[in-house]
Amino acid sequence: MRTLLKVVTAMVVIGLAFWAYHENYRTQEALSQTERLQRDIGAARSRLAMLRAEWAYLNRPDRLRELAAINFDRLGLLPLSADQFGRIDQVAYPAAPLMEIDNAIEVSAGEDDR
């Protein structure tokens, strides 16, 4: 009986060791993947910062003004002036849709008026 108990105990220990070994490798893989994702996020943030700086550089007003002047023949772009703006009452808003009443509800006065 003791021999059987020792064999079962040894098998349980071997099984637990195998499980711990397997979990260690899974944990190491998860940590590697996390580090890889962190590096990818850092690289993406760096690219985004560079793209934002480039966008700001390309949208400088003096540069856009110069491009508009160069391409005036093709585009016909002119600077904004005050007479190009309208008043709010000149805007044609669509009319609100009217709801059709299918079932009329009879409204009666209070109970005292009967």
Low-confidence stretches: none
State the assembly state of the protein chains. Answer: single chain
% residues in beta strands: under 5%
Give average pLDDT, whole number. 88
Number of strands: 0
What is the alpha-carbon Rg in Å?
38 Å
Helical amount: 55-70%
Could you spell the SSE succession in H and E letters?
Answer: HHH
Q: How many distinct helices?
A: 3
Question: How many angstroms does the end-to-end distance come to?
Answer: 98 Å
- Globular, elongated, flat, extended or rod-shaped: what is the shape? flat
By helix and strand content, what is the structural category? Answer: mainly alpha
For the sheet with most strands, the description reads: none
Can you tell me about this structure?
This protein has 114 residues and is mainly α. The protein has 3 helices and no strands. It is flat. The mean pLDDT is 88.
Overview features:
mainly alpha
What is the secondary structure topology, with strand pairs?
Layout: H1 2-58, H2 61-70, H3 72-75
Summarize this, please?
The chain has helices spanning 2-58, 61-70, 72-75. By secondary structure, it is mainly alpha-helical.
